[in-house]
Amino acid sequence: SITLMGGVDAFAGALKNSGDPQHVTVLGSGGMTTSWFGVKGSEDLGSGLRAEFFVTSFFQTDTGVYGRFAGDNLFSRDANVALVGGFGRLQLGRASAPGFLPNILFNPFGDSFTFSPLVLHSYVPTGRFGARTWASTNAADSGWSNQVVYTTPSYNGLRASLHFQAGEKAGDDDRNNIAITAMYDNGPLALSAFVHRIRDSNPNPGGPILDVTQAPVNYALVDEQRAWFVGASYNFNVVKLYGTFQRTINDAAGIEGLRDRTISAGVAIPAGRGAVLFDVADTRRSGQLFGIERSRRTATLGYDYRLSKRTDLYAVAMGDRISELPTAMSYGLGIRHSF
Amino acid sequence: SITLMGGVDAFAGALKNSGDPQHVTVLGSGGMTTSWFGVKGSEDLGSGLRAEFFVTSFFQTDTGVYGRFAGDNLFSRDANVALVGGFGRLQLGRASAPGFLPNILFNPFGDSFTFSPLVLHSYVPTGRFGARTWASTNAADSGWSNQVVYTTPSYNGLRASLHFQAGEKAGDDDRNNIAITAMYDNGPLALSAFVHRIRDSNPNPGGPILDVTQAPVNYALVDEQRAWFVGASYNFNVVKLYGTFQRTINDAAGIEGLRDRTISAGVAIPAGRGAVLFDVADTRRSGQLFGIERSRRTATLGYDYRLSKRTDLYAVAMGDRISELPTAMSYGLGIRHSF
Amino acid sequence: SITLMGGVDAFAGALKNSGDPQHVTVLGSGGMTTSWFGVKGSEDLGSGLRAEFFVTSFFQTDTGVYGRFAGDNLFSRDANVALVGGFGRLQLGRASAPGFLPNILFNPFGDSFTFSPLVLHSYVPTGRFGARTWASTNAADSGWSNQVVYTTPSYNGLRASLHFQAGEKAGDDDRNNIAITAMYDNGPLALSAFVHRIRDSNPNPGGPILDVTQAPVNYALVDEQRAWFVGASYNFNVVKLYGTFQRTINDAAGIEGLRDRTISAGVAIPAGRGAVLFDVADTRRSGQLFGIERSRRTATLGYDYRLSKRTDLYAVAMGDRISELPTAMSYGLGIRHSF
What we know:
Three copies of one chain form a homotrimer. Chain A is mainly beta. Chain A has one domain (2-338): Porin (Beta Barrel). Chain A contains two helices and 19 strands. Chain A has helices at 100-105, 117-123; strands at residues 2-15, 24-29, 36-46, 49-58, 78-85, 88-96, 126-128, 131-134, 143-151, 158-165, 177-186, 189-198, 224-235, 240-252, 255-271, 274-287, 291-306, 311-322, 328-338. In chain A, the strands form two sheets. A 16-stranded antiparallel beta barrel of chain A has the order 1-3-4-5-6-9-10-11-12-13-14-15-16-17-18-19. A two-stranded antiparallel sheet of chain A has the order 7-8. The longest helix of chain A is centred in the middle third of the chain and has 7 residues, at 117-123. Chain A is globular. Chains in contact: A-B, A-C, B-C. The A-C interface holds A 2, 4, 39, 41, 43, 45-46, 49, 51, 53, 55, 57, 73-81, 83, 92-94, 143, 145-148, 165-171, 173, 203-204 and C 4, 6, 8-12, 20-29, 35, 37, 59-66, 74, 307-308, 310-311, 334-337, 339.
């Protein structure tokens, strides 16, 4: 069986990150969820065995450009095939990075690459390409190419995954990425953890792993990143709480170039046919490449109103502040529809 | 519900515009309708409310290249989401330009970007990229990105739409496009009108709005276009008549650089399982950038034979003449299939 | 009726061609079949007439890049529409090259552009882009753009096709590609033959037809290729045998620049729920551009295990040797799923 599926999300708003000289008035794409579509399928192979595949693409509702940015790969969201059975799940191909699910499941704004403070700190740099104001914390993209993922069966809601990304560098089998993730989801409590060690770039290999920017901070020198992360959420029904912690070390030619510590805390309060959402993320960054320690704090308040299970309207306001720079405000009013 | 849909159109022919040094023998794409495919969907939200989306892509049947031209955005045809109710319809995202439907509905060759005289004058420049023989009349593409469209409910067949395209220029909220359109369709008579004011390019922002060509006419200097258009059609059953008029003013740094006047007249005569089609478009162009007044006249005669509601064969011959240049002839024999 | 269809194929392995300095460890795409997906449809037009279309895209399971390589056209696999009836089949648009089916049907590794010796010799150059170790034998891609294909009805399993590709060069109707193919398939015996004469490049026109490489062998000078091919297979049930022969002449400015002779022989032996596969291809190359005669021999041994009709696992080992260069070995272990 094949299923066609996706989501379309658009918003009107004004965007400004801390350090941006001016705001931009936009009719933007993906205020809450990056727009995407694609196909998935599965086949029952008998003996408890199943084949599965996903081929899915991001796109921009505002311009019709495919991918998350100009130059992205068409099926950067998913291009993979898997064998599932009593042994667990073995998947080959392009798929989400090990840190992706832990980030989007443990903050109230989910997979918003526009307004979720945690996701912004983890994956979205600010400033222009090649001249970043603030590089993202996680290296090598929110999706990994050339990836093998083995996931254990679920034991009372606990699963672990081993991720390996082949670097595909001729004669060099060491330029690869590896990670272990664990997820627990049982009743009101959910927990998550991952560790990763990254040496190759994404979505395509051979580039700088963290950012191409060379000045004022030479992020392009970073050639290895190690990180560990823990996250938790608890659903009290009248309120759901979220919290995460991540430590990230970036080496440049064997020297600790950048050191990040990110914490986030969030809350979702059911109200009417929707929910009031609030989240704050705080990152402290230091290291030889970076110079003096600086911090970035981002907080978002929103209301998500459900027209149906598949369609919602949202209104959000976000403040973003990097130490010594002024606070910048962003706003959005949008609609999200999934199919 | 989701629907997969599209159309495939290919033709064998020879193409030459007035001013082209030589003809090109082609196996071409989209003789009658630009080939495309995509998905649409809608969801009943109750209370008379409905969510809708369109994600559709143009492609070239001859080479398999996506988009209308190399470098086009993948979903340049549609990438939008809308809320529909008693209040009308509010749509966010990439969609057709305000002038698109009035142009394709009020000429007998419909949305043919290869053989419809009116569509060619409105949207398709001649000559090479960057060295145009004749720039199109309408600026900023036949689709608008970053667009909000509000459409009123229908009153006895009359609807109006307000179009706004955010320019998304940092610190400048004035570089945007706006338009109002009106459509009337009731019985044999149909009427259409639009006005637009254009200050930003498409499908991507920041470029020249009319054409990048700088010599011999510096179209790239045009920074604002204002236009108004009226169209009418009447179906006498034994014959259907079409007529349109458009006035277009292009400013370059506050001076009237180009002034176009386009009229078209067409006829469709049912014959056998198909129809004989004829259309002529005439554009007069003047203005300080352009120098002396020149005109372009294009006429097409065709026969469209219906194999079924979804599949037709067509044969067309087109003459194209720019003042002082020789008449050039184009021919095509093709098949169109929609799904 | 419209059908969504495709195939996803990924493998873990190590790849090295003869002349490569080092092996590359990969999580690769398309070990057995190049991953693809798309839509096809057909409409019954009555009177024995039918309309058909195919719009299909290759993609890379490992990175999510569309096409067979970066820069390929999105729908390079298929973008065509056809009319089918008692007269045969007339198809317009992008589709497979005349040599494609004869190559993939007459070797046991089918359409593997990674491990089939015959397909590798015919269509896949080795070495880097612009600095090939060994150029492929067939010019102008395994798909032809701007193509008209007429196929006769089947007479007791025998069909012939005429292929024409318009070169679409202004004022020059001679820069085109033509071919005739014949296929016979009746009972255990299948036969195939084609001749082609190629003067234009693919998937896009105007480039060198064979390869852009200029040194040490100036393949870019080749401006016409003529080839003839015969293939046969016989299914004895306990074993299926395959054999092909191709002679290829490449002219550069009227001089015979390259002369190839390719033979291949293969066998498929059913074993358990799968089959043991073996194939060897041998190409001898000479000519004024090339200098002294050299040869390339490639052999692959594999086992293909069927989990179902639509899903299989495969393990392959391949040796590749160009005269005077050492033998290089490649390995792959993969999964293929079609939908």
